[in-house]
Specification:
This protein is an alpha/beta fold and 395 residues long. It has 18 helices and 10 strands. The chain starts with 10 loop residues before the first helix and ends with a helix. This is Elp3/MiaA/NifB-like radical SAM core domain-containing protein. InterPro entries: Elp3/MiaA/NifB-like_rSAM, rSAM_sf. GO terms for molecular function: catalytic activity; iron-sulfur cluster binding.
Length: 395
Amino acid sequence: MTTEGLSINSPVTQLLSYIGIESRRNGYQYWKDNQYAMHDCTCMGESWGFVWFRTSGCIQERRGSCIYCKYGTGPFFNDEQIIDGFKAALSGITKNYDFLFASSSGSLLDIREVSQDVYLNYLELLSLTDHNSFGFETRCETISSERIRQTQEKLGGRLRQVFMGLEIANESILKYCLNKQQNLDRFAGAIKILANEGVSSCVNVLVGIPFYSIEERIQLSFESVKWAFDNEAYRVFLFPINVKDHTPLSFLFGSKLYSPPSLWEMIEVMKLFPDKIDEKKIGISWYRPHKDVPGIIHSPITCRKCNADVLNLLDKYDKNPQFSYIQQLSNIECSCKNKWNEDKSALKCFSVDYLMESYQELSKRWDKTNSYYIANHESIRNELKAMEKKLKGYK
């Protein structure tokens, strides 16, 4: 294993970033063959359209970040190719939406992915459409007052929502369990910038964090939703983890070192926020299997007996959130739900030893000699031990 080119001072981050790069190396590149992706739905009682146009993908993914993510990194595309892809995407839309989410295949405001020239073209093309409002996704560190103000001006005040991936409100868990470098103060600052410019922040929170028991995962998701609202996020979307091929998480899943979330886990988190749900402040995403999306090897389910009923109620919730749907879901009786309740405390709780075991297995899979892990074993353990309380959720 070589860590050349990874300018990272943490042995853990070097190891996980190398594994992240290697695991995705031979994965299917959706954007090599497709200029855009799109779908639409009824969400929050409105018509929502979604369009993603191709770029060279998320910069952080190219560096090996995010053990669960596969944003579809593609080959390099020049500005003209990117703009042509967005034009093709817009031409595929046949109606006007209450809200159109139009974003790149990575992080829209990252100038290394979407140049200023491309972005200005993007704004010009959007401004010519008749959709009621717009939004996109980007990382918190790419948000500035100047760019949001520029966007609002070009779109005639129609920029309504910006989506950001919080994942989990614990910097140590982000770093050591997800390999995502994120500063929570900066994230909170981005929420404030958006609010000051009259734009709503939509914060994505994961359900099913690896290396924790189900009970711990529910608590972590709960605390993250609460953190988002405490920091004045407008809305939170829950994302139950889908396992994607050619990611470190898919190897952990195949090696029985990761147990993906059931839909019961997401429902359990939702039960904790009755008031926010009735205010339409909590949405859900990726709770259904997406057979048209390549590379997903496991999606959250319940069981064959009750899954259709559960999905039917979640679909109703997705269209128009009401806590009464969550109460109906809670009242469903099924043997799979009983088994899930038994498993809640049966899965391994977080421990440094468990994390070290998983690191070692990942290392052996992508570094045949396991040389880096062996040479840095003590440094990695010491680094984790120093962060153990924070990894266990203590402030």
